[in-house]
Amino acid sequence: MTTAAPTSTPRRTGEIRAVCLDVDDTLVDYSTSSRAALAAMVGSADAWPLWQRITDEHCERLLAGELEYESMRNIRTRAFFAALGEELDQEEATRRELHRQEVLAAGWRLFPDVVPCLEWLRATGLPIAAVSNASGRHQRVKIATLGLAQYFDTVLIAGEVGAAKPDRVIFDTACADLGVDLCDTVHVGDRLHADAIGARDAGMKGVWLNRQGPREGALPAGISAISSLAELPELLVCELSAASA
């Protein structure tokens, strides 16, 4: 008599098998420390919108290969002060930038909801990736210094990958590193377009962490929103339950 080979139940697509997390302003209160560092360099944080715009421009040039990471920060600082009407030589730009970096690093802090959430995720056995739009190795230093490295199975830095959110390349790379499909992965971040919508458009489940509280208007289709990482476990449990139903 021939015994039939056991059959396995096909895995449903759309199950949650991994979680990706943004870093700055999702896990780390980056804006507070960055504003304080800018104020230490300039005297106030009133020029924050200008600083952000110039930073974004120079990070794009870095990703495009037009700038080297070692020189980008000083070039950005000189461009920033030039926009304020002050021309700096290289030595003075370096001095001011190093001071800003020292204040920035001294101010790195995790949000209170981060470690409990990461501990819960680790307990579930789900693999976890950090997916950051940062441009340089300082991000890995930050992750290690704040005790986050132990929670991640892989860390994706835009400046190393050569692509930044919402480009699907960085999401593809994260899922490849974790050995999971895009459709089985949740990505959580504080930027609606770069994180949640970018992840959704790449084929993932996009979750917007809106720490600022309720907003007017409906969420874009296919996007979930939470106001704290303390809400993420319940959201994931609901998703897991729906996938197994």
From TrEMBL:
Pfam families: Hydrolase. The keyword Magnesium applies. Its cofactor is Mg(2+). It comes from the Bacteria. Coiled coil: none annotated. It comes from Saccharothrix hoggarensis. One of its GO terms (molecular function) is hydrolase activity. It is an enzyme of class 3 (hydrolase). This is HAD family hydrolase. Gene3D superfamilies: HAD superfamily/HAD-like, Haloacid dehalogenase hydrolase-like domain. Its EC number is 3.1.3.-. Keywords: Hydrolase, Magnesium.
